[in-house]
């Protein structure tokens, strides 16, 4: 008997997903828990395993199609078995013609929302988390925005057009203004100039879903937070010495490698407890002080960027941080993360230094209010004071680290005190290794 493969629920806020790739074709065998297909949601890309072993009888949803959670996307059965005729669908609404049902063997598209569903319900269910975040940030009731997307969905473009119209109203007429008064300067608009000219040697590719989400999130963050930056020089010689001296024993005990990142995570977690506003968020005119430290760690992928979250990082020792970090990073690269593992972060660390970067000025990961970037750790000549009070040149392992912070609630002095606390911990702490 054929087994229905349904689009899984990948998180409480996920209502739909897009098929990215099928790993089997109709008629091919597959084992239980082997990857059957890949999906993309507004939060995460994931590989979905086959629920049972058997033969893929038919594929019902094509690549790049977006369907609601619970949709039957394929059927698996025994070799040689034919796909059963699907059970009759519930009676359609009176306004829908009886002949509108799709043939059993044809790929299905998302069903239209019932005619009796309220506009509020459709918007809240179908609008993406990004659109809802934009609406919340600007105090917009989504019910007042006309949606151009599927089934009345409010898209990012709809929100941008609505906000532009709301923030740039026409000036009222002034019939009695002096004739010599200069006209108001026109409001700048986006250039309509083509990106490339006819005859240019170019290759045009559509953005991937993940690339579009990253793009939307970065633009939203720049429009939301008042970004300010501070850069600190940190002597990593202490950490380098600890790694060299204890790496072999650490890896034998904890079964995972020891990089610079767990040291930075431990130092940041301690500094966040001392400066809680850096671990906060903005909610309208209120500041939400988060009582837990959930560290987001940016992981570069071949196809984009993702930020898995190490929860309660302040309660973990160096071994626990290293294990959590390496586990999440590994599963991020193999598309095995769950949506709850990339949400709920309170502060983010990114490490462009692994690519040789001296330091970067990263964009804040909303709704957080700060992000720390780690540059490359390099040997540099540094002036130090010896035991006799004399200044001498010495070779030190040095890292430049930048903090991007939201000046709406974090002042420069607070940001610098936070970074000074991180610096002090990295330069002097034994991190429980000695």
Structure characteristics:
434 residues, alpha+beta, OB fold (Dihydrolipoamide Acetyltransferase, E2P), Dihydrolipoamide Transferase, Chloramphenicol Acetyltransferase, 3 domains, 4-stranded antiparallel sheet
Please bin the fraction of helical residues. Answer: 25-40%
The CATH architecture of the largest domain: 2-Layer Sandwich
Radius of gyration, whole Å:
27 Å
Q: What number of structural domains do the residues give?
A: 3
CATH class descriptor name of the largest domain: Alpha Beta
Number of strand segments: 19
What is the string of SSEs from the N terminus onward? EEEEEEEEHHHHEHHEEEEEEHEEEEH
Report the structural category: alpha+beta
Task: Tell me what the structure shows.
By secondary structure, this protein is of the alpha+beta class. It folds into three domains: 80 residues, RNA polymerase II/Efflux pump adaptor protein, barrel-sandwich hybrid domain (OB fold (Dihydrolipoamide Acetyltransferase, E2P)); 67 residues, E3-binding domain (Dihydrolipoamide Transferase, Irregular); 202 residues, 2-Layer Sandwich (Chloramphenicol Acetyltransferase). Helix content is 25%, strand content 23%. The chain contains eight helices and 19 strands. Strands 9, 12, 15, 16, 17, 18 and 19 form a seven-stranded mixed sheet that branches. Strand 10 and strand 11 form a beta hairpin. 29% of the residues are buried. About 13% of the residues have low confidence.
